[in-house]
Amino acid sequence: MTEKADIVKLPKTFELLDESGIGLDGADGLLNERERRLLVGAANFHALAGPGRTFRFTVLRGPSGTLPSLTDEACHQIGWADDREVVGSMVVRSLVHTTAKFSPADGLVDLVVDLGGEPRLASAYDQLPGLLGKARRTVRFMAPVQFDALRQFRTDVVERRHRTRPVPRKAPVRLARGAAARRPATKPAVLFGLHWLELGGAERWALETVQMAREAGMVPIVITDRPSSHSWIERPELEGAVIVPLTHPTSPEQESAFLNGVLSTYDVRGVHLHHCTWLYERLPWLKSIRPDIPVVDSLHILEWRTGGFVDISVRMSNMIDKHHVISPQLRDYLVGRQGVEPEKVELATLATLTTAGIERPGRVEGAADPFTVSFVGRFTQQKRPYLFLQLAAELRATAPGRVRFVMHGDGELAGEVMARRDRLGLADVLEVRGPDQPVARTLAETDALVISSDNEGLTLTSFEATAAGVPVVSTDVGSQASLIADDLLCPRHPFPFVRLAAERLRTMMTSPDQRKTWLDEQAVKAEAFAKLPDARTWTRDLYEGWLK
Amino acid sequence: MSTPASVAAVVVTYNRKDKVTKVLDHVLSQTRKPDWVLVVDNASTDGTPEVLARYTEHEHVRLLRLEENTGGAGGFAHGMSKAYELGADFVWIMDDDCYPNDDALEELVNGHAKAEEAMGMQLPYACSVVKWTDGDICEMNNPGTTWDWGRLLAKGVDGVLTTSCSFVSVLVPRWAMTRFGLPLKEYFIWFDDAEYTLRLGKAAPGVQCLRSVVVHDLGVNRGVNFGDINHSNIWKFEYGARNEASYRLHHEDFGAFLRHVQRTLRGMREGRVSWPLRLRVLKALARGIRFNPKPEFPRSVL
């Protein structure tokens, strides 16, 4: 408790001179905690980018689902859209050191910060614009499995292209020392780059590292670069962190001023990137002014269709001292495919992120009646819940015995899941459970878990299933081969997936011995995987090294 | 200190129970021990599993029995894939009638590293000198060399730069499998080794390490000759004709394809091969036009 309080005091970038409606001075405000933290994030950015200056923030709130505007150029306009309501005003003075003397003429800098609305779950398809978007949306929701078949062919094409193309590298920075422009700061800090503060495996790990940096005695400075409502901004791991949720486009002079502000206020001992394009792009500049600061990045998933952080990482590899990867697949891609020096790539897994450790499964008795097949995960496009429903329909029609299904999760496709469940006539055999229920309970009832994702890094639910003694049938994507029995790896394409997964599940129903054989193979793989280096230990050692 | 590279030996066997144990004994008595020895039994029917059973308790040996005979190509693809899954940094592949000298692997690993250092680049494979049982060079397993084959010799390294080699004691680094995939199992037999090493050669030349020596226990010491076709071996030549035709056409050019056809026909004419057999080979050459398999890539497991 005292540790937290101390750290909250440490990273002060601004002082509050006055406020109304915000609630930062202890009085009741109109803002909730998420909004307050977003506002503090905006103030962090402007205070770091404008050392010594005084800012007056006019604080807006938008309708539900609208995204914040915190650091972009629009903040300098004192007009706003009709649907924005003013919910607060705040005056702060930057505590960032400056040698400049501001004259009264510089006066107050007025900024308008829009905190957006409450987060709303929406699939990317909901945001497709125009007639074409409407057509795509309609086809996607009318025939999701057929639409998915086309998507997978597109993935094949993109993957083939990337397989044969080496990623060009940014030229290295050859300086050993940057020309000193400022006095050295004394507060040790780690600069983190994150995608956003929302639910996700990469984000969960990123927040853990933020906490580890704080526990090591350094101030975490957390930059995010994606538009988001940042529903995780209140997470306890972020206590004491200086959060800067960037919204774009920021003005170029503010960007360098902001990073200069960070470097002059904090003794940045290292940079740790977790899928943050903005910070990746600024690494060459950062390395040219501070080549002494070590840079590492953590990579989680190999994917190209929607950009791909791994390739950005490869492009910037000359600026990165260590690539931390969580799976053997990523290591092999970097070293084998892209020719990154093996000593620069560190494989350290998150095998124990959600389980206390992998043990030999205790639940190996014969299959139950009815045989329970489950899906555990977010209802998102990536996880393809509609494919699980298709598999359920197939199994219901062809299973050699009674079978029931559990879908445990929630997400942007929740409405589609319920509608298709009814359309496929599965309402009496398929139960949908919300994330308020414990996953352990679902796994305890489960005879086989299905992972139907079209891409994954390494599914944490596979670890949980193994620990619970549940065999997993999965698409052969990402590093799933590290955890799943060979026979239970199914093609990514939807129709072959349904065909093979149904066949394997039918085999499990008729042959408990075969089910046990697969489960044993899964456990052996999990055990071998668990012996790989651990990401937490590696990161803790890394941060301790940065403190020396 | 980095950990030493791990090596998985892969031996593919089919109905050679009298030789495969000698191969394994040679592999297991290496001065540089392989971390794994994977024996791929291509569904042998001569009692090979019973003979191999005595190795089941050996801590380094893993027996992989296939349901059907997939040919040397399929066996090597399977074994290499499994070695890759185990996390091997190198795979050392050989036939079931290849007896490596005690220091063959050690010299191969060291020779590969020295060649890489001398060349200043990663080399995608290293192969041994293959001798016949009488100590002479084994004619079937002589690698193709690059135009600058003596470059390493000039730098004081006992190695020769190569364009391709046969699967008789070849060391393949993990990165090469990641980048180029596995041998084409669809080739079944013949030219799978040439195709694979030519494919790897897109990255850089290979190296034949002159200090690494193995003995290939073939019945007769004779290279591939289409004039030798008879009724009992025609099936093998059909694979060879088709596979090389496919490679020359789809991975080189039409001219290379025509030259292969011409060479094949000339060989059969000079060997006075009967017309029905020549016709079968011609058909195999024609099959190569449409036959164009794509490589599979190994899975990263550990």
From TrEMBL, chain A:
<protein>
    <submittedName>
        <fullName>Glycosyltransferase involved in cell wall bisynthesis</fullName>
    </submittedName>
</protein>
<keyword id="KW-0328">Glycosyltransferase</keyword>
<dbReference type="InterPro" id="IPR028098">
    <property type="entry name" value="Glyco_trans_4-like_N"/>
</dbReference>
<dbReference type="GO" id="GO:0016757">
    <property type="term" value="F:glycosyltransferase activity"/>
</dbReference>
<dbReference type="Pfam" id="PF13692">
    <property type="entry name" value="Glyco_trans_1_4"/>
</dbReference>
<feature type="domain" description="Glycosyltransferase subfamily 4-like N-terminal">
    <location>
        <begin position="200"/>
        <end position="346"/>
    </location>
</feature>
<keyword id="KW-0808">Transferase</keyword>
<dbReference type="Pfam" id="PF13439">
    <property type="entry name" value="Glyco_transf_4"/>
</dbReference>
TrEMBL record, chain B:
<feature type="domain" description="Glycosyltransferase 2-like">
    <location>
        <begin position="10"/>
        <end position="120"/>
    </location>
</feature>
<dbReference type="Pfam" id="PF00535">
    <property type="entry name" value="Glycos_transf_2"/>
</dbReference>
<dbReference type="InterPro" id="IPR001173">
    <property type="entry name" value="Glyco_trans_2-like"/>
</dbReference>
<protein>
    <submittedName>
        <fullName>Glycosyltransferase, GT2 family</fullName>
    </submittedName>
</protein>
<dbReference type="GO" id="GO:0016757">
    <property type="term" value="F:glycosyltransferase activity"/>
</dbReference>
<keyword id="KW-0808">Transferase</keyword>
<dbReference type="InterPro" id="IPR029044">
    <property type="entry name" value="Nucleotide-diphossugar_trans"/>
</dbReference>
<keyword id="KW-0328">Glycosyltransferase</keyword>
<comment type="pathway">
    <text>Cell wall biogenesis; cell wall polysaccharide biosynthesis.</text>
</comment>
<comment type="similarity">
    <text>Belongs to the glycosyltransferase 2 family.</text>
</comment>
